[in-house]
C-alpha cells in the first residue's frame, strides 16, 4: 500500500480570483456532493476540496482524525478564507481552523449538519455514507469507498472535539441533529436550519437554502 501524495488529495473545483475556499470531505471520502455548492461559491474566489486518501488504487485510508488534520493542514501554503465541511467534513474544518488559528489566521468556518459528539454508526448509516460518496463505476471502486467509510466512521467514533475556536462560524443544522456542544467550543457561532434530512442537504430543493445561509454568513 502507498500513501497518497499532497497533490493527489487537493482537488480544484473552481478557478477565480479572491478569497479561497477549502471544502473538506465527509466520511465517504469523495468531494462529488460539493460540486453544486462549489459553483455557487466560485464567484468569491477559487474553490478547492480535499478528498480522502484510500479512494485510488494502492492508497491506504486514514483511520485517525488527528492524522487527517495534520495531513490536510500541509496541503495549503496559506490558510483559506473559508473552511466548509458536511458531516465529518465539518469536524475536519473545525479542527483545521483551530490549527490555522495557531498561525494567527481566523478563517470563517461552516459546519453543515456536523456533530461534535458523533454516535457510533450502524449498518444503515454505513450504507447511506457509501451511497452519498458519489460516482464509483466499478466493484473495486465501491470496495475502496466502503473501506474509506469504515475507516472514517471508526475515526469519528473515537474522536471528541475539544478544540475551541474564536473565529466566525456557522452551523447549518438539520432537524435530527441534536448536538449541543458547538456553542461551548465557539465564541462567534451562528446557527441556521435546513428542513431536510442529513443526506438531502445537497439536493437541488435544499441547496438553494444552504447557499443562502452561507452567503448571508459571509456577507454579515
From TrEMBL:
InterPro entries: AB_hydrolase_fold, TesA-like, Thioesterase. It holds the Pfam family Thioesterase. Residues 26-218 form the Thioesterase TesA-like domain. SUPFAM superfamilies: alpha/beta-Hydrolases. The keyword Hydrolase applies. The keyword Hydrolase applies. GO terms for molecular function: hydrolase activity. Keywords: Hydrolase. Gene3D superfamilies: alpha/beta hydrolase. This is Alpha/beta fold hydrolase. It comes from Saccharothrix lopnurensis.
